[in-house]
Design a protein that fits this description.
21 strands; nine-stranded mixed sheet; 2 domains; mainly beta
């Protein structure tokens, strides 16, 4: 089960906030050892949902990140703080070599996108997100991928490496790969109530939000899931709202969406 949020917003954002200052791994080529090297910063960025960072704002529905980040939709926590940049003291790359960045590991719910906030705006899956390749070429120009995850208290870790390939035939050049880059994130919850399913097939959640919370259902969580209003009418019992589910109903998923 999952929860989602949404409301009539006072401010419409047309770009995705970085969610803090830049946290920059410094990439360099070391000619003496013929290897890529990376100096990682000490700071650990936080994935923050818009409901926390900009509680009275939402994204423009025409922007490509609206469905993933807007609190009325998936409401993912996100950050653009990590970025890749070449160290000014780097040695020149070998003739005919090209840099690539590869994600080695990371949980599937931690999603990566190449973000462009200026027209033509774009949100392109990278590093294994939505089954795309886990590697991409890099020309050394600074870029900040957009990273998203469901809001919560659990942290996330993803490992990367930078390596060289032959620009003509695409062969990976042996022994040029950097050590692993560890991207770590803490993850901030957005205050949404938890859904609880009892043994008697009753679905319950705290009633503190009054009628602002709308129960929605989907038959699959494949991205993007098709959420629709649940046909059940909530009943107030003490300090909780409950709906009775049918024992023979097909498998389905539920979430709460907040609206003002």
């Amino acid at each position: 089960m999952a929860c989602g949020l949404g409301w009539g917003r006072a401010e419409v954002l047309t770009a995705v906030p970085m969610q803090g200052g830049m946290v920059m791994p410094m990439v360099a080529y070391h000619a003496e050892t013929d290897r890529m090297q990376v100096a990682m910063p000490d700071e650990v960025p936080q994935l923050i949902p818009l409901l926390v960072s900009h509680p009275d704002a939402g994204f423009d529905p025409t922007d490509p990140w609206f469905d993933a980040l807007d609190p009325s939709r998936q409401g993912a926590a996100f950050s653009r703080r990590y970025g890749f940049v070449m160290d000014a003291m780097s040695d020149p790359l070998p003739a005919g070599a090209q840099m690539w960045i590869r994600k080695l590991s990371g949980p599937p719910e931690l999603r990566f996108y190449r973000y462009s906030g200026t027209p033509p705006k774009a949100l392109t899956p990278i590093f294994g997100t939505d089954a795309v390749t886990n590697a991409l070429p890099w020309n050394g120009v600074m870029f900040h991928p957009l990273v998203t995850a469901p809001p919560g208290t659990n942290g996330y870790t993803a490992l990367f490496e930078v390596y060289l390939v032959d620009a003509v035939d695409g062969r990976e050049l042996p022994a040029t790969t950097s050590g692993p880059l560890t991207f770590e994130f803490t993850n901030q919850p957005d205050g949404r109530p938890h859904l609880v399913l009892g043994r008697d097939m009753r679905l319950a959640w705290p009633a503190g939000g009054g009628t602002n919370w709308v129960l929605e259902t989907a038959l699959t969580l494949e991205h993007p899931a098709a959420w629709t209003p649940a046909p059940h009418v909530p009943v107030l019992r003490g300090d909780t709202l409950e709906v009775q589910l049918e024992a023979d109903a097909p498998q389905q998923f539920f979430r709460l969406r907040y609206q003002r």
